[in-house]
Write a structure and sequence with these properties.
- With 70 residues, this protein is mainly α.
- It has one domain.
- The chain contains four helices and no strands.
- α1 packs across α2 and α2 packs across α3.
Length: 70
Amino acid sequence: MNEEKLLRALADGDTKALEKIMRKYSGYVCTVARNFSHGALSEKDIDEISIEIFCGIWIRPFGCFSAYRR
C-alpha cells in the first residue's frame, strides 16, 4: 500500500492502516526520541513516547490528515 492510500485509510479509521504505520515508523520514532533525549530517557520511556505519538495520530487523525479524507 502506498503512502497516500495508507494515510487515506488511517483518516477513514482503518486500524490495519495504523498497524502498518506503527510497524513502518516505530523504529524511526524511537530513534528520534532517543537522540533527542541525549541518553536521559530509559528504553521504557522511549517506548511510552512512541506509543503516545501513535495514539495521538489515531485519536486526532483528521486535523493532521484532513487532505486525505474523502
